[in-house]
Amino acid sequence: MKTKMKKIELVKIILEVIRTIIAVLTALGLLSCVSCP
Fold first, then answer.
1. Membrane-spanning regions, if any (predicted)?
2. What's 37's DSSP letter?
3. Contacts of 10 (CB under 8 A, 6+ apart)
4. How far apart are CA 22 and CA 16, in angstroms?
5. Integer Cα distance of 26 and 20 in angstroms
6. How confident is the model at residue 6 (pLDDT cuts 50, 70, 90)?
7. Is 14 in a helix, a strand, or coil?
8. Whole-angstrom distance, CA of residue 17 vs CA of residue 5
9. What's the CA gap between 2 and 26, in Å, rounded?
10. How remote is the C-alpha of 32 from its chain's centroid?
11. DSSP character for 1?
């Protein structure tokens, strides 16, 4: 049970990290598009 809980928490953390990375990439993409003439 403890290992399962830890795995679930790890998955949640990984998902959050992926979401933040996607958000940063999209933000950078938007900035680069805006900076382009």
1. 12-31
2. -
3. none
4. 10
5. 10
6. confident
7. helix
8. 18
9. 36
10. 19
11. -
Q: Which tokens hold the place of 9?
A: 């928490």
Instruction: Give the span between the Cα atoms of 16 and 23, in whole angstroms.
Output: 10
Residue 34 φ/ψ, nearest 5 degrees: -65, -40
- CA angle (22 as vertex; 19, 24 as ends), nearest 5: 110
| Burial profile 16-37: b = 16 or more Cβ within 10 angstroms, e = fewer | eeeeeeeeeeeeeeeeeeeeee
- Which two tokens mark 24? 């940063």
> Which residue's structure tokens are 């949640």?
12
| Token duo for residue 15 | 């998902």
